[in-house]
Amino acid sequence: MELITERAAAPSGVSPILRYLPLAAVLALVAALYGAVLADLASDWWTDPAASYGMLVPAVALWVAWLGQREIASLPAARDARGLWLAAFGCVLLLMGELSAEFFLQRISFVVVLAAIVWVFWGQARLRRLGFVFVLLATMVPLPAIVYNAIAAPLQLAASDIATTVAQALGVSVFRDGNIIHLANTSLGVEEACSGLRSLSAMVVASLLLGFVEQMSRVGRILLCVASIPLAIAINVLRVAATAVLADYQVDYALGFYHMFTGWLVFLAGFGTLWAGARLSTRLGGHAR
Fold first, then answer.
1. What is the dihedral of CA 20, 21, 26, 28, to 10 degrees?
2. Residue 194 maps to a domain
3. Diameter over CA atoms, the chain
4. Whole domain around residue 211: which residue ranges?
5. For the chain, which terminal residue's Cβ has fewer other Cβ atoms within 10 angstroms, N or C?
6. What is the full DSSP assignment across 120-137?
7. What is the per-residue pLDDT across 101-148, written as a single tens digit (0 to 9) for each?
């Protein structure tokens, strides 16, 4: 399709209402299409602890966009009809999600359509500048159920196995039966919530933000994001092992407040390790240009 250029300034004689009428109409259509989808996504954020981090992502994405507003405004605003292809792809994803009852496709199509709107109304240059914002927005969508279930079970068994080995190395009498850790006085079940997927999603988002704040290079950001995955798994194994050791000493320390507190503690330790890695990488490799 032919590139349709238009400067940011409106032609003389055109009222601001008429200038923004097409955009307003498109946004109203998007709101009608995705109202129920977004309400359902917000409900998941509120009720599912594994997806609760998503509540913060839109606000953080807006903050990142606001920080770069001057640079974005300095780029030429040019309408580009090629963005309609991306909009069509987003609509196809929405339709596929509706027909297959797959929430992930419905929700991720919203991010795709938002990117298409930026491309159509403001051009490819501004879309590229906002690329990181849309990557952040994509992380607010929980993993598909089929992917989540396929990952959770192996992580449960791996966490149970490694935690048992660590506890035995520390002198605790323990053996494992599947995802159940048997101690002398009690048994601990490593449930799906303890598989590490909660901390994994949060750590990936944290790595993206750290890469941005530390102004790391693109390669550095990718490496930091990749490193956050084994780090999240490692801190979860540490939590399970610590719970087993504490339960062998005093069962109450593995329940209620203590269990929740150790979860926050090991997550903060993991985040601190990630931040230290980002700082070291920045000092060794320099800032992104």
1. 110
2. yes
3. 83
4. 146-285
5. C
6. HHH-HHHHHHTHHHHHHH
7. 889 999 999 999 999 999 999 999 999 999 999 999 999 998 887 887
